[in-house]
Sequence to fold (305 residues):
Amino acid sequence: MSVAVASYLAVFAVSALLVLAFHRLLRRGLAPTRLVETRTPADLGLAYRQQRIPTANGRTLHGWLVPAPAAAPAPAVVLLHGWGGNAETLLPLAPFLAQAGFAALLFDARCHGRSDEDSFASMPRFAEDLEHALAWMRRQDGIDARRIAVIGHSVGAAAALLVAARRDDLAAVVSIAAFAHPRTVMCRLLASWHIPYWPLGWYILYYVQRVIGHRFDAIAPLTTIRQVRCPTLLVHGAADTTVPVSEAAAIHAARGAAPVQLQVIAGSHDDYGEVAQAAPPLVAFLRAAMPTGGAGPGAPLAPNC
Fold:
């Protein structure tokens, strides 16, 4: 073997190792921080059952099933947190849902809370977990399978819109603080890391799309909102600096013929202040979409945009 060939092979081997190390570092940097719940529905005075729900890749999800207080079959809501969150994230909404007559399932996506670990987490995998949670919910006694809605927060909201775009059996969707496009989220993250877009940032976006198996354009809420057929409520905090409220307006503007409403409320990305003020419009929207027995449907929520 000539010296030139040996040098070429050595450079190639070192370059390959550097690329592999970079990929490993990138996956580690994009992995969510796992936070385990410190409260349960019982802390809010709610009866519940702890569940393990099967999902893709032979994994299971941790969840809490809060039964409806009224007679069966009851309408139900499946709630999905955002990146780095867990079932506790949306737990403050559970008492309001129970009071309105809904059963509720709050669960942890893979790599979050008490759910199983997997090779990576992504918005499409959030959607995959949500699909399995919906299938599990439909099989439960006392649940009206024709009246099941979804509430998602942040990445969970984008996943909820992705699921709703793929199926026509959801009663309603509530999207809280969804981003308009994954590319904008990634670009904000790269900027916070002081990584220039070209060439490193461009390659990171390319690599992430290859790993998750989806093009950002195909799964972006700006795309999926046009394919959603059920009543949809976009909720966004006016003081959200993580995902600007302008992104909610952009999603709403891209809705096409879909029955989509936009509600801007006080609060930031993760903190909506007084839940007692934020929850009633959300519950009224759900009751209009799937009336519960006894109290009757709530008044439809008028868009404020």
Notes: The longest strand covers residues 143-153. The beta strands are 49-54, 60-66, 74-80, 103-107, 143-153, 172-176, 232-237, 260-265. Confidence is low (pLDDT under 50) at residues 5-22, 294-305.
